[in-house]
Design goal:
Structural class: mainly alpha
Helix content: over 70%
Oligomer: single chain
Largest sheet: 2 strands, antiparallel
Shape: globular
Number of helices: 11
Strand content: under 5%
Order of helices and strands: HHHHHHHHHHEEH
Number of strands: 2
Radius of gyration: 19 Å
Length: 309
């Protein structure tokens, strides 16, 4: 079977598996990778960029290498190749769990239970929930849905299209390492530098595709394009900026502003300043837009794989 068909059948099956099953509560492959990466960090940690780069190389390289060996082991068996691609796609994408967590917080806010929403927010993002009121939580959820549409769905499909199963696995490994050590805490400021920079590079194409698909799939293409063009570069993240700006324009809301991570307050520029404040129903609208973007990204990835084969 041709490689493009293997990817098309496997990636579609994997995305359907995510839609129907979501992430398991126990035994998820990404969680197992996280535990292994944490063990490597305990062995290697030094307050030094070089040791952090070694950590990134060992973890991300090891995951990609294992995926490459598995791909070679089944390359003469079409059904097994499709199954491997499906399993890898299901393991690395997380659109259903993303939507589920966002909707759970939205339901708590709709019921007026702000404390329950605050308790649930850390499942979705790293904001300090106690510093947020109900509108602030709603805005945080919409921003997280936008950013994670790129990180948890589109970016993985892009690298799957470019490099097959090793690309899928390597992207998720890099993204997971960034979440673990790429933040600017005192412990990881230098040690996590390599993971953070590699994640910026790996996430670049997926973020731009996500932004473009949000323009296409949203309710206001002109506003989404304008917000992307005018505001994306204001965001401190080169990849979150285009995604959050295009989602803001597509949904007609304002994103950005003051937020708090780990007790550190950040004052970020407003994205789509002409939009209205985020309201609780916008969480559902963001989840639906995220799902449309994910399926469009699958189609784009299949097309790219076909051209490359």
């Amino acid at each position: 079977m041709r490689a493009d068909r293997t990817f098309a059948y496997g990636a579609t099956a994997g995305l359907l598996g995510d839609l129907l099953l979501g992430d398991p509560r126990r035994g998820h492959p990404v969680a197992a990778f996280g535990r292994a990466a944490a063990a490597v960090e305990r062995a290697l940690w030094r307050d030094h960029r070089g040791w952090g780069a070694l950590h990134t190389a060992v973890c991300a390289g090891g995951a990609a290498g294992a995926a490459l060996l598995a791909t070679r082991a089944v390359r003469e068996r079409p059904a097994a190749s499709v199954a491997l691609t499906a399993a890898a796609t299901w393991a690395v994408v997380g659109g259903t769990s993303l939507g589920r967590e966002a909707r759970a917080i939205g339901a708590a806010l709709a019921a007026g239970d702000v404390e329950a929403a605050r308790a649930r927010l850390p499942h979705l993002c790293g904001r300090d929930p106690q510093s947020l009121d109900a509108p602030g939580i709603a805005r945080a959820v919409v921003e997280s849905v936008a950013e994670n549409t790129s990180d948890a769905v589109v970016g993985a499909l892009v690298w799957g299209a470019l490099a097959g199963v090793p690309g899928l696995v390597a992207f998720r490994a890099v993204n997971t390492l960034d979440a673990m050590v790429g933040h600017r805490s005192p412990r990881h400021l230098r040690y996590g530098w390599a993971s953070a920079r590699l994640d910026d590079v790996a996430g670049w194409p997926g973020a731009r595709l996500t932004a473009a698909l949000a323009v296409a799939a949203g309710g206001d293409p002109r506003a989404a394009t304008r917000a992307w063009r005018d505001d994306a570069r204001k965001h401190p993240s080169p990849n979150a900026g285009p995604v959050e700006a295009s989602f803001a324009g597509a949904l007609g809301v304002r994103l950005g502003g003051t937020l708090s991570y780990g007790g550190r307050v950040e004052h970020r520029p407003v994205l789509n300043g002409g939009g209205r404040a985020v309201e609780v129903p916008d969480i559902e609208r963001a989840v639906r837009l995220s799902r449309r973007v994910g399926w469009l990204a699958l189609g784009a990835a299949i097309a790219v794989r076909k051209v490359r084969t």
